[in-house]
Amino acid sequence: MKFFLIGITGKMGSGKSLFSSFFKKKGIPVYHSDERGKILMNQTEIIKKNVIKHFGKDSYKKEKINRTYLSEIVFKNSSALKLLCSIVHPWISIDFKNWIYSVQKKTLYFIKESAILFESGSYKECDIIITITSPMEKMIERIIKRDHLSENQIINRLKNQISNKKREKKSHFIINNYSSATFLQKKADIIHELLEKLYTNQYGKRR
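-> structure tokens emitted (207 positions)
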């Protein structure tokens, strides 16, 4: 069966997970790359070995990824972040393909949500890319509530993520999340309707 792959991306705290959740409520399968990456880093021995090899034994604490330690390294050094991505992303790619097969059904499209959609090269697999942007102060506010990080830590991490300008150049839809959850939901409804029409025009009626 034919289907579209939709990529949803944005900086941390932009609201991409909330935006993705509105599609999930419509029955659209959503693959959360960042969450799956954390799980794979804890469960896949070869990832563990390579992370420890390049970032030290402190990368894991009680057999679990030491996110605080590792974040302090990779979010201050773009080369370190690229190295970590090169270790983890091939396994995320395999996991994603397995996920596609496991959830494949009569659906119009699948969604892959990822903060590093462009950095990892995953955007090349997507038929349509949606970038969620948000004012800096809003992102900082959300991340403080969610992750309990300091403002300086958050700013350092945001600086090491690809700029919105670069994301927007390769995106089909750009949504500025400056308002409420209701605003995001309305945008999701509009895009879902557009995707249904696009699918019908390209492949005919939904099976």
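DSSP finds nine helices and seven strands in the chain.
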